[in-house]
Amino acid sequence: MLCIFRNRSNELSSIDMENKSPALTFDIKEDGWETSEGFIMRQIEMPILDEKKNPEDATHVILKINYAGVCGTDRGIFYRAAFRDLIHSSLEKQGQTTRILGHEFLGEVVWQGSMVSHLYNISKGMTVSGDSHVTCGNCYQCKIGENNVCSNEQILGISINGIFAPYIKIPAKNLWPVDVAKVRPEIAAMYDPLGNAVHATTKTDVRGKTVAVFGCGAIGLFSIALLKHFGAAQIIAVDMNEKNLAMAHELGAHQVISLTHSRELVSGYNVDVVAHIMELTGGRGVDVAMEMAGPNSSVNNALESARRGGQVILFGLKDGDFTIPKFSRVITKGLTLHGIIGRHIFETWQTTDSILSDSSNGVQDKIWKVILKEGKGTILPFSDYNNDSFEKAMNEHPKIIFKM
Ligand SMILES: [Zn+2]
Ligand SMILES: [Zn+2]
User: Fold this and answer.
1) Range 30-49 average pLDDT
2) Of 32, 156, 229, 331, which is least packed with CB atoms within 10 Å of its CB?
């Protein structure tokens, strides 16, 4: 069905679409957090821009989604293991019950609000990715240029509707135009998580340094490719999954350490893993320890493996209370701890874009071949979605992407 719309400046806009379209969702009433699992495909209203009714639509666009990345966040929601409170409280506040999930995307602008070109230099027909954190622009942090720690941020697919749908409405200020002649679309759909890895690996100078990466999921693996690119001298990868460790090695890790046979914790950390890292670093410990997984023991492994005066990057997220035995060691070792959240919008995006756009550095190629397996089993048609085959693919590959 061809829908013709007239925006505030009286231009005609048209989108070829049905009134409803399929979206992957969670509904607090119909599904229930404790009584359901997976993503539920629902027919949802097509988003439209109506500036008379919602003046803020002047700064929004309707995107046709081409590719949508699946993140650890989505995995947490799939298993109802994370983000319960944020989803519930935001829906209640908005007077709604259904949340459209997903936050990593590549899409085409098909309809723009009347202020969009003027304010953001974004226009119909552009191919764009965009940040999943919608910041307020008004809080103290936003005002001083630290929008990655905005006090009022909303997150696509969690606290506001996300992108697992053929068409979505999004603020144009969050969009980043992509040159698909330089960055292949499947990779361009991952600027947001790649940006997490860029943020994590640029927090401290890694040039010539020894770095251990604890956790080789998608963002841990991206980080290893970036550490190699940025000139880390020695990269040590730690994970439970042998397949992911093999990928870590292919992406540039000099040594890999399997956690599979190391379940014994002493003082909250894996003694043999830390001993192995000490051995690989001449008894010193690593300059930079990156915690990219989330479990308490992994945090303790990172703290224990860092050398005196070392930097500890904390990215993995897990709910609940953590215990850090011998906490005074953090101080007496003189460690510096960095919590990494989101990306600097758009400083991180510029760095990510520069690295991916330059084919001579091989980063994009490595991610495509090693992590996405050139699309084999990692690119899933959205229209064929079902929980079982999706779950199988999600557990087989560190990163999967929907083709819409
Ligand atoms: Zn993500
Ligand atoms: Zn703010």
Assistant:
1) 95
2) 331
